[in-house]
Design brief:
There is one protein chain. The chain has a single domain, classed as TIM Barrel, CATH 3.20.20. Strand 5 and strand 6 form a beta hairpin. The protein is built from 16 helices and eleven strands. The radius of gyration is 20 Å and the shape is globular. The protein starts with 5 loop residues before the first strand and ends with a helix. By secondary structure, it is α/β, with parallel strands linked by helices. An eight-stranded parallel beta barrel has the order 1-2-3-4-7-8-9-11, surrounded by nine helices. The protein has a two-stranded antiparallel ribbon with strand order 5-6.
């Protein structure tokens, strides 16, 4: 089987809570499939944007929505012990109901940098994520669980029959830019999440790695979701519709220079971008903030990021490119002026095309 295309929004959690909840309510009403909550990194604080907890927000979103699935995209095993993740998952399961929670694990190079992970001894993010998945599934499964790994220990008694709590695990995704994490997603996860500045070429690269991991584990790669984080904005006027994507692309291209550097090489190569092209964007971000970074993103650079941006026809065409490349789950990093109006336009003019 092949998975149906899902379309959702990657919500940066650096916005006020009421604004995030308002977006979630409207996404639910308009028929979007998912809202993924990205815990805005400490880096954002330098630019007047404060992070909010994905796990706390997901429970609040569950209270104001009916059908929208909520994804943690992503949380890091370096900031939460997997037993704590299981506890938070149970609460969210209880609130949102069956089939509406998706958990994304990622090493988060920026969190690792800010927390000093790997400074005193080599970090093992692949091992940390693998063990986190095993522990999360074991604890949520409800049976007695005794795990002693290289990174984590988890000893949990069985859930008693009279315990008032949901039973069963949830879909778990691995966030991966490089081949090893992408192989692992194919081997053991329900899905793979790609980072911002994903392009169709990077989707093809990720799909190949996902398939290798799946085939080594005897799994069908067609059944594994590939969620792609893509810069986006929309307006009936094409030029205005590209401006929001220019801003979010500028922020993330600056991020590739300032924070994760070598880890982003394959992303930039897939987009045909050089460091010489994006260093001025990072310098503009440092000197003048995100609007200065946006001004440094030329049309040529923006086009290389292949945004889902412009007017509705442009957005439909771009989504089809990503779908053809192997993406099964579009995660729009929707940005720019009047996002409520953007949601309305996307819901009325773009989603119906993919619901036929």
């Amino acid at each position: 089987m092949s998975l149906p295309l899902r379309i959702g929004v990657m919500q940066l959690t650096m916005e006020p809570v009421e604004e995030i909840l308002g977006h979630a309510e409207r996404l639910d009403q308009l028929g979007f499939d998912t809202i993924w909550l990205a815990e805005a990194y400490p880096w954002w604080r330098k630019h007047s944007m404060e992070a909010r907890s994905s796990t706390a927000l997901s429970a609040l979103i569950g209270k104001v929505t009916t059908n929208l699935a909520v994804g943690w995209g992503i949380i890091s095993p370096y900031t939460r012990h997997p037993i704590q993740v299981a506890m938070e998952a149970r609460v969210t399961q209880e609130i949102v109901g069956p089939g509406r929670l998706l958990i994304g694990f990622g090493a988060s190079k920026i969190f690792m940098k800010e927390a000093g992970i790997g400074e005193e001894q080599p970090a093992r993010p692949l091992t940390a994520i693998r063990e986190s998945i095993e522990i999360l599934r074991g604890v949520l499964g409800g049976e007695e669980f005794d795990f002693h790994g290289k990174e984590f220990v988890a000893v949990v008694p069985p859930m008693r029959p009279d315990a008032l709590a949901p039973r069963g695990s949830v879909p778990i995704y691995v966030a991966g830019t490089g081949p090893r994490l992408q192989h692992m997603a194919g081997e053991m996860a329900d899905g793979l999440l790609t980072p911002s500045i994903t392009t169709p070429n990077f989707v093809r690269y990720a799909r190949l790695n996902l398939a290798k991991g799946a085939e080594q584990a005897g799994r069908d790669p067609a059944n594994i979701d590939l969620g792609c984080t893509i810069v986006a904005s929309i307006n009936e006027d094409r030029a205005k519709g590209r401006e929001g994507a220019r801003e979010i692309a500028g922020m993330y291209l600056a991020n590739k220079v300032e924070n994760i550097q070598g880890s982003a090489d394959v992303l930039l190569e897939s987009a045909g971008l050089t460091r010489e092209e994006i260093v001025p964007i990072a310098e503009a971000m440092t000197a003048g903030g995100r609007l200065a970074a946006a001004a440094a993103v030329s049309d040529r650079i923006l086009d290389k990021t292949v945004p889902i941006a412009g007017n509705p026809a442009d957005c439909i065409e771009a989504i089809e490119k990503y779908q053809d490349a192997g993406c099964t789950h579009i995660m729009l990093e929707l940005w720019g002026e009047n996002r409520n109006a953007q949601l309305e336009l996307f819901g009325s003019k773009v989603l119906p095309h993919f619901r036929r």
